[in-house]
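name: query_chain
kind: protein
chains: 1
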Amino acid sequence: MARRTSKKKVKQIGTKTELGKYSSKYALSELLICGECHTPYRRCTWTTTDGKKKIMWRCINRLDYGKKYCHHSPSVEESVLQNAIVQAVQNNIGKCSEVLEKLKQHIKMGLSGEQTEDKTIDIQIEIARLDKEYVDLLNQITADIENAEALESQLEEIIIKKHSLQNELQIYENSNSKQANTKTRLDEIFQIIEGLKNHPMEFNDVIIRQIIDCIIVESKEKIKVVFVGGYEVEQRLCSD
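structure:
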């Protein structure tokens, strides 16, 4: 998920800037990647010699620059791609489910880990102690004006320590929040995958976007499908 989120977006139809937010209605516009130059593929409509329309996917570098940056990436017919992806999902849904289940258990262990919980509590206790020490020093300064300057330096040290602890506490809280959100997301994906088991599947942009991280076009005969969770499988492309 982090790898998918951090992927650099190449300017395409439907995006405002190079790093623009994904807005295409086709799942493959975000997922399909050239195995040679690592550039996304774009959906195109070709007209055959007999006047018929054919939906194809082509490396953006090849479309925009010919063979200048990408020499061997193939054009792939949409129906062939979709059939191969559906086949990859149906053949490997069980293994993908196992990988996601392990990820869920790992995150669950992280969320309930005693070390993280204890450290968080210890930090909160230390912050409370510093707050009390700060108040006590303020009272001393009021009662002992002559030594106020020395006591004020101690106040500054307390403020610095407290600020550092608050930052550390925020890191723990952010980490726990991210893990909880990731677990929820994995639960949703897991339900989708469980629902696909033992059921015939047709290509569906919404489902594909949910369960697949990326699809790499390795050649005109083969793609690599990378599922959410990291499980990878190679799948042959077969013409209708």
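note: Residues 1-23 have pLDDT under 50 and may be disordered.
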